[in-house]
């Protein structure tokens, strides 16, 4: 009799243990699935949540240039090489609405923004033996213009544009839909098809140029790729969610009153 009672107790204990393990496994799968979904939602949030700083270097040839000679006369350095660097942080672009939205063409639009005190972009130029630097957020206001048409997209940065003879500009261009979500500047990103279409600067009335024949090298592309840890979490979560529908079958519990014990 004691042996029979011990067997029944062991059977009850195994049933309870299996049930608890099953609950723990199900909770674990739910947790992993929820975590994966949360990560995917965070990664897919538009705006500065996924903004990636953009930087690079460029080179080209001076055109429409000028510099002041010691005697006060002006000359130029057209045809000389101009090099430079740029940095853009879309996450630091203010969220102000555009002050102007206008037709750019029969099939497109442009949105213009005016900013003050926002350090989201900087430019440096080395030309004719001199180096000059520009940055948004200075005393004068800065312009940012987004253009989207069926032919492509453009982003123009005008640093210090409201101050004559002390400003710089840079324009990025790419295929349709490749640079930003219309018209949200915080979604700015670049890819393999992005190019630099124009650059120019004026550092006082004495020194300035447009730069033509541009080549550009981006240090970072704003195409975000989840890190391996995030990819692993997403994969585990998906497996966990799939596992919810594939619960292992448990042996039906037989009530004690209906059990027969062989003698």
What does the model show?
The structure is a single chain. This protein starts with a helix and ends in a 19-residue tail after the last helix. With 263 residues, the protein is of the alpha+beta class. The protein is built from 2 helices and 12 strands. Strands 1, 2, 3, 4, 5, 6, 7, 8, 9, 10, 11 and 12 form a 12-stranded antiparallel sheet that branches. It has helices spanning 2-44, 228-244, and strands at 54-68, 74-75, 81-88, 100-105, 108-115, 121-127, 130-135, 142-149, 152-159, 166-174, 195-203, 207-218. It folds into 2 domains: 2-44 and 226-258, no CATH class; 53-218, no CATH class. Residues 2-9, 32-48, 222-234 and 244-263 have low confidence and may be disordered. Strand 9 and strand 10 form a beta hairpin. The chain is globular, with a radius of gyration of 32 Å.
Strand-and-helix sequence, N→C?
HEEEEEEEEEEEEH
The number of helices is 2
Average pLDDT, all residues: 78
Residue share in β-strands: 35-45%
Termini separation comes to 10 Å
Return the domain count. Answer: 2
Q: What structural class is derived from the secondary structure elements?
A: alpha+beta
Radius of gyration: 32 Å
**β-strand number:** 12
Instruction: List unreliable stretches of 5+ residues.
Output: 2-9, 32-48, 222-234, 244-263
Helix content: 10-25%
Largest β-sheet summary: 12 strands, antiparallel
Q: Which word captures the global form?
A: globular
Provide the fold topology.
Layout: H1 2-44, E1 54-68, E2 74-75, E3 81-88, E4 100-105, E5 108-115, E6 121-127, E7 130-135, E8 142-149, E9 152-159, E10 166-174, E11 195-203, E12 207-218, H2 228-244
Antiparallel strand pairs: 1-2, 1-3, 1-12, 3-6, 4-5, 5-8, 6-7, 8-9, 9-10, 10-11, 11-12
